[in-house]
Design brief:
5-stranded mixed β-sheet; single chain; about 40% helix; alpha+beta
């Protein structure tokens, strides 16, 4: 009897990863990675505007072909029952009447504004503020599911920005597709606007779409922001489906390019972090942290009659992770990026060397405290214009001490998110962590456990996002009846657990209270008495050194 294999294809910030998984045992059979070819690490920037981050959609297609064809060569294609796809978000792409990305059309080749607007593009910060203000003043419900504030990273902000800085691109766009919608549409041949399927996950978390108010925000609201959005809204009529449903079947052309069997089903796309949560076994009470260049926190709760409104979260969306449950999303826009920046541009030391020296320091011994906002704050302040801060440095401060303070700052930011969720009555009894940083850095895992005062469970797979996408592929391939059953068979098991160190939690609580003072002053603009703040840091440092 042929075994059943599902393919998960994970579109990250810098590359595409394909993974073949046994639908019954969860065994990861084969994998392949294809790097994006354009820009620096796949990211196309603008020297005149550091907020710009774009990608070439042609890289997505080439990356899919390269990674998938390599995996298919390692297995029996006849055993493949389905394909699941996850991508970054919000990464909207302007397309023409044939569904072709404008960046791939001769007229717009080389135009940044015709490219995919990558999730980390913050150029639309003014537009996001306008959308937020309009929704609040009109007393519309559209912000209820996204933490009370619309982000510059998201769908409508970027489209509005495009209209203002590149009106010819905006006018040429028949529609805009999230990356999570574009890839399945291309694979299944349903690219023409009106035929493709949109992801509930992407549209709900990034585009204010909700069944209870008729999908996307209504024409009157969008027209009050800019009348040019109304005709576009009328063209966004495609169905929105959860990622356990099919977007279509693999076409003959894609079969020829990759070796995938023609006609096998392809799941509706899902955001990479949400796929990572599926692959990490997310369930009610278990928060999943996806630690990467940024960090995304995903939780699920039963679909309540009254949906809670949690200020500062990136979304509370029915069915975005598991059908029948509410998916909660929060995150931090700079974690791995923050460490990489400091290592590469400031310390000029390898992360390995920094980690080795920072691990020798006790909590509080660096004498520093930092704010982790070097790429703005996503949760819980939702302000992309905030920046980093380091307090306490002296002429004796070392690179390892600063690096340790940056790690601690991201952990303090993580605790702030958990505290906000729990303040709304949602219990978090365990935290599972996946991603490359979690696999490579025991120091970071231990600091997070100590600061969050909870055991951190390392997910055994280093490919949790692709694994979650494969779970969606198994669903459309009829290998399992429900997502939870598919998770039981396929999700990664828990690996090493990092329990909090009771000798560290006390000092970290003191430092966290100091972090919150900075958070309130620089994030909320509140008056805070900082008298003795630096002296207190010195005192904590001296105590730590005497006990080391």
């Amino acid at each position: 009897m042929l075994r059943q294999i599902s393919l998960g294809v994970d579109f990250g910030t810098n590359n595409v990863r394909a993974l073949a998984v046994d639908c019954q045992s969860g065994e990861e059979i084969a994998t392949s990675v294809a790097d994006y070819r354009s820009g620096r690490g796949g990211i196309i920037s603008d020297p005149s505007d550091p907020n710009v981050a774009r990608q070439n959609p042609a890289d997505y297609i080439q990356g899919f072909i390269e990674s998938v064809s390599e995996v298919v060569r390692q297995i029996d294609p006849l055993e493949i029952v389905g394909v699941g796809i996850d991508t970054t978000a919000s990464t909207p792409i302007p397309v023409d009447k044939t569904g072709t990305p404008l960046a791939m059309c001769e007229r717009f080749q080389g135009r940044l504004d015709a490219c995919a607007w990558l999730w980390k593009d913050h150029s639309a910060h003014q537009e996001s503020e306008e959308i937020t203000d309009k929704a609040k003043s009109a007393e519309r419900p559209y912000l209820n599911r996204c933490g009370g504030s619309y982000s510059s990273e998201w769908f409508w902000s970027k489209i509005l920005r495009c209209k203002r800085v590149a009106p010819d691109v905006f006018e040429a766009a028949e529609s805009w597709l999230e990356q999570a919608d574009f890839i399945p549409a291309w694979v299944t041949g349903n690219q023409i606007p009106g035929t493709f399927v949109r992801s509930v996950c992407a549209s709900g978390h990034k585009a204010m779409a909700e069944v209870s108010w008729g999908g996307y925000p209504d024409e009157d609201f969008l027209g009050s922001i800019d009348p040019a959005l109304v005709p576009l809204r009328r063209r966004l009529t495609e169905p929105h489906r959860t990622s356990d449903q099919a977007a279509g079947d693999v076409t003959r052309d894609v079969s020829r390019l990759t070796g995938l069997p023609e006609g096998i089903p392809v799941a509706v796309g899902i955001i990479d972090a949400h796929a990572g949560a599926l692959g990490s076994g997310v369930r009610p009470g278990r928060l999943v942290k996806i630690l990467g260049t940024s960090t995304c926190d995903i939780a699920v709760i039963p679909h309540l009659e009254h949906v809670p409104e949690i200020e500062g979260l990136s979304g509370i969306v029915p069915g975005s992770v598991i059908p029948g449950m509410l998916g909660l999303e929060a995150g931090q826009p700079a974690v791995g990026d923050l460490f990489g920046w400091f290592s590469r541009d400031i310390a000029r030391l390898s992360l390995r060397d920094l980690e080795r020296e920072a691990a020798k320091l006790r909590p509080g011994e660096c004498g520093l405290i930092a704010l982790d906002w070097n790429n703005g704050n996503r949760s819980v302040l939702a302000n992309p214009l905030l920046s980093g801060l380091l307090v306490g440095q002296t002429l004796q401060t070392t690179s390892a001490e600063v690096y340790r303070a940056l790690i601690e700052s991201t952990a303090f930011g993580a605790l702030t998110i958990v505290s906000r969720i729990e303040a709304c009555g949602i219990e978090i009894d365990s935290i599972s962590v996946c991603g490359g940083i979690a696999q490579k850095s025991p120091l970071i895992m231990q600091v997070y456990a100590d600061i969050c005062r909870r055991p951190l469970q390392l997910v055994s797979s280093d490919q949790a996002c692709a694994l979650g996408a494969a779970i969606c592929g198994a669903m459309v391939g009829k290998a399992h009846r429900t997502i939870p059953l598919a998770q039981d068979a396929m999700a990664a098991k828990t690996g090493k657990t990092f329990p909090p160190d009771p000798t560290s939690t006390g000092i970290y609580q003191t430092l966290y209270d100091m972090y919150l003072s900075l958070h309130q002053a620089f994030g909320h603009g509140q008056l805070v008495d900082f008298g003795g703040f630096m002296g207190r840091l010195r005192e904590i440092q001296q105590i730590a050194r005497r006990t080391s």
